[in-house]
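Marked as duplicate of an earlier ticket. Keeping the data here for the record.
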Amino acid sequence: MISKLLDFLSNYLAHRKGLLPIIGLALLVVNLLLQFIVPGSFIATTNLFLHIGLFIAILGLMLAWAL
């Protein structure tokens, strides 16, 4: 099951190498906007989307380099 999922993701992302970094950057922009829209919320104070976005962007760059 997991092997089939990894094969599918590998084939899908091989043709769309910039997808994960773009998603990561979009999450960084969402985090920036949340700082101004709802400054006292849990997501804004912990910078949750910032950390997730950075992780996804770096992971996407490493996968793009490998594929």
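See parent ticket for discussion. The mean pLDDT is 89.
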